[in-house]
């Protein structure tokens, strides 16, 4: 006899994690939007220096990291929440703010964790199709907001389409919504965008008390394996998510690594520049091969396959040791999401693509 699950658990989709493929050689993994570069050497030294403290719990208030982030952005530490990746902050926001009868609005396709929020709480999810070019249709999203709407999610730059809207558009959108609606602006890839300085959206927090920004150390800082995300926004948001999650959800090494990584903004700038160079290279090469690509403002491309079979192409690439993310797993069949790696990794992807599509 199997376990009896409640209806909400049965409705929660399985997160589409990147698959690992059997390949007799070195794999080029371009499926998870990870950084191809290891953490800054000082971060690795900091981690090593904390290993003898693993018999102690981490600071449950994340005091040092919250202060460092607050100082970096000119905010008060009370406005900062730290999570086990930004995913934890999204899930706990759903648990704290949603319930049966409430509504959540987000664009689709977008970040794969978003459907979990409604499914796990019994709220109603309203998925608004992306507009032309894979951009958020903010007018269409605003039209779906009702008195029952608790949360509106905007992923900017959007995952998986890599598109982004300017801060001015976000400002006008948030200002057009009722004050009872919390707008969560998911900015996991904001450092890679050329449409804004990452600090530009911080100024919106003083203007819109119902706005929360989500950021992460997983992407540009290269700390995917340690899982640290954070929110910037109203103090009551921090209190809400802290009340519903488990204590000590961010481990001691992760807190120390993130605090040290924050110091090295020169390294952030270097990684952004290198990513932008690879973005231009990959997208130009894909376009030359006849593939459609969205206007990427992130560290990955959203590639339209035209008449190529998605499943066959993903399998052919994996047979050649290149792992990418299939569009079907991300909400839109007929596409690939391909993370930018180093130049040798990107060229290996392009060579494998040529072999897989040769006729």
Radius of gyration: 20 Å
Low-confidence sequence ranges: none
The main pleated sheet reads as: 7 strands, mixed
Strand order of the largest sheet: 2-8-7-6-5-3-4
Number of strands: 13
Shape: globular
CATH class of the largest domain: Alpha Beta
The helix/strand order is HEHHEHEHEHEHEHEEHHHEEHEEEH
- Strand-pairing-aware structural class: alpha/beta
CATH architectural label of the largest domain: 3-Layer(aba) Sandwich
How is the secondary structure organized here?
Layout: H1 7-11, E1 28-29, H2 41-49, H3 63-73, E2 80-83, H4 85-97, E3 103-108, H5 114-121, E4 124-129, H6 138-143, E5 149-155, H7 167-176, E6 182-186, H8 204-207, E7 211-216, E8 229-232, H9 235-244, H10 252-263, H11 265-288, E9 292-293, E10 300-304, H12 310-319, E11 322-323, E12 325-326, E13 335-339, H13 343-357
Parallel strand pairs: 1-11, 3-4, 3-5, 5-6, 6-7
Antiparallel strand pairs: 2-8, 7-8, 9-10, 10-13, 12-13
What features would you highlight for this structure?
359 residues; alpha/beta; Aspartate Aminotransferase, domain 1; Aspartate Aminotransferase, domain 2; 2 domains; 7-stranded mixed beta sheet; 4-stranded antiparallel beta sheet; globular
């Amino acid at each position: 006899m199997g376990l009896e699950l409640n209806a909400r658990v049965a409705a929660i989709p399985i997160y589409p994690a990147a698959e690992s493929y059997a390949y007799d050689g070195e794999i080029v993994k371009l499926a998870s939007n990870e950084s191809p570069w290891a953490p800054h050497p000082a971060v690795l030294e900091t981690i090593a220096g904390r290993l003898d403290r693993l018999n102690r719990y981490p600071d449950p208030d994340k005091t040092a990291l919250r202060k460092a982030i607050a100082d970096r952005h000119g905010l008060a530490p009370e406005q900062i929440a730290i999570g086990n990746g930004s995913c934890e902050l999204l899930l706990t926001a759903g648990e704290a703010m949603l319930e049966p009868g409430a509504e959540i609005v987000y664009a689709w396709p977008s970040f794969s964790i978003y459907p979990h929020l409604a499914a796990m709480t019994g709220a109603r999810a309203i998925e608004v199709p992306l507009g032309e070019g894979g951009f958020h249709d903010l007018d269409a999203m605003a039209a779906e907001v009702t008195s029952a709407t608790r949360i509106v999610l905007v992923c900017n730059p959007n995952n998986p389409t890599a598109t982004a809207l300017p801060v001015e558009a976000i400002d006008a959108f948030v200002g057009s919504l009722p004050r009872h609606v919390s707008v969560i602006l998911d900015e996991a890839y904001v450092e890679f965008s050329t449409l804004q300085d990452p600090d530009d959206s911080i100024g919106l927090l003083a203007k819109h008390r119902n706005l929360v920004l989500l950021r992460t150390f997983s992407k540009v800082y290269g700390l995917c394996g340690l899982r640290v995300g954070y929110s910037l926004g109203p103090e009551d948001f921090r209190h809400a998510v802290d009340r519903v999650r488990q204590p000590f959800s961010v481990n001691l090494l992760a807190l120390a690594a993130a605090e040290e990584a924050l110091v090295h903004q020169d390294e952030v700038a270097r990684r952004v520049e290198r990513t932008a160079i690879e973005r231009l290279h990959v997208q130009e090469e894909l376009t030359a091969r006849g593939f459609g690509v969205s206007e990427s403002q992130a560290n990955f491309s959203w590639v339209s396959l035209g008449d190529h079979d998605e499943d066959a192409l993903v399998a052919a690439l994996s047979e050649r040791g290149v792992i990418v993310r299939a569009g079907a797993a991300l909400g839109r069949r007929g596409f690939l999401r391909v993370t930018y790696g180093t130049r040798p990794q990107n060229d290996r992807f392009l060579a494998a693509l040529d072999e897989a599509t040769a006729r």
